[in-house]
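Justification of resources, computational component.

The compute hours requested in this renewal are based largely on the per-chain cost of generating structure records like the one below. Each record pairs the submitted sequence with a full structure-token output. That output is archived, and it is also reused by downstream analysis tasks.
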Amino acid sequence: MSGLVSGRLVSWVERRTLSRWARMADQAGAENPDVLKRVRSRARALQQRIDRVLHVADGRLALPTVGGAGIHKPLHTDWAWRPGLWSGPVRPYGAVAVTASTDLGGDASLFHDCSWSEVTMRQTRNVGADALAPYGANIDVFAFDGSYLSVVVELPADAVDGLTKAHILRMEARISSERPLEFFARLNVQHGPNTEQIVREVPPGDRDNVVEFDLAYSQIRERHLGRAWVDLIFDRPAFNEIRIEDIAFTRRPRAVL
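The structure output for this chain reads:
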């Protein structure tokens, strides 16, 4: 009985809330500017929470029917993560004439140094039977007078929490292009005032790419770790379409010999 009453109360509150915001929308055109500023602040705060719910809900409900949204986890994996651009819908889902630094969904950004941008980006829905990620990203590049084009993925704090030189950070990516394209993956780990960089060339021609960064060969200071991020750097991308169907990261301790 208490559950029934609680459910009805929640429904009543939701209806009242929707009705109140409907009235605010109707009255916004004639509202006092001071009142309108307060209403706008509350609306933006509410929108942020709604967007978070929609991101998770839409992402889960849009998962590929075959294979789910799993991440391949090698033995002894102690951390795994897929960036938001590939795990759920983002806003906006596309952009044209992408500027030199463009947010692609919170933890991913696109960078270039073109003087005149002819780069477009859009989020796509993965529908392949073997897809693990529900969403992907397409980057279309036309004339390109810059020296670099890169997609930067900011790793979350828990990727660095407990990170040691005994770890291997693994990136599994499904990347293809309309024309042959060379690209590199670079891990950046900030420790104190310094940043350790490990660069790996991604083998050309493969749609499924696996890159491993073995921190045993790095100079990181484990007690002073800060943020970490990965750059995907594309070489000579002009007049090409780059399809990034998935990116996922895992972390595991290396085997002790």
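The chain has a mean pLDDT of 83. Residues 72 and 203 are 20 Å apart (CA to CA).
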